[in-house]
Design goal:
By secondary structure, the chain is an all-alpha fold. The protein is built from nine helices and no strands. Helix 1 runs antiparallel to helix 8 and helix 7 packs antiparallel against helix 8.
Length: about 190
Amino acid sequence: MLTRPASALLHPLAIALGYPDAHWKAFLEELEAEVREDLPELAETWAWLVRQDLVTLQTLYVASFDFDPKTSLTLSAHLPAQVAPGPALVRCVEAVSAAGYALPGPAWADHLPTLLEYLAVAEEAPAEIASWVGTAFAQIADHLPAGHPYRPLISWVAHALPRLPAADQKPREVSLEAAEVVPFPIRYD
């Protein structure tokens, strides 16, 4: 379980790990002084993000998180083999709802920054969800190259959250070839 001070620090990081747009940029600018004071180890990264133009940040974000399952910001891409994605995402939706929050849609239960924001604001979050999210961020950090602008943020989150035991972290095998196979023949007679 996260302590309240640690979880409060997750909120700005949850927003910073969202898709960069004008509101996102304004939020980062507004919190820059607070981050410098509360998270000095991330101040340089935060300042870099604030200085960049949106197109550069959007290009970096998409290239970093949208094309490689190993750095995807979706929980289902990082769940261990023994955890079925469907029930895990249903568990996330139920936990968010039980805490009195609502997701914009069911797909948001798979979005790591959204789950991180939930962990930051929930009075009590299930330990298994915090462990899934922590493990996912650790795996992403391991796959981002050294010097990647988002790596310090993701590494900080990975160290702040609990993780699954190492024996339980074997990722699910995803085969792109299997996804292209139609499970039954399509006939056009």
